[in-house]
Fold:
Amino acid sequence: QVQLVESGGGLVQAGASLKLSCAVSGSIVSDADAGWYRQAPGKQREMVALMTSDGGTLYDESVKGRFTIARDNAKNTVYLQMNNLKPEDTGVYYCHDHSDITLWGQGTQVTVFS
Structure:
């Protein structure tokens, strides 16, 4: 059974940094594309960063230059380094394994105050 467990969220002031982790068990993280998604209050879930199985990356325009997605194959973990956080980055952040539409983590809350 594949499981994704996110961690690293928190309450921070604008301009601060956070690093989210998504630990994957039951599958090999480098075998599939993996993405970080964000759901703000009252809004739909949206993708903020994607890493393909071959190491390519893709970012939403709103986070380009501030967020970095990375993968540690030895730890079977995907990370999202978030710098210069803004209040509009607030939301629940989810990790998603693109090999299966049902493979989502439980989410980790990120709250940025000004």
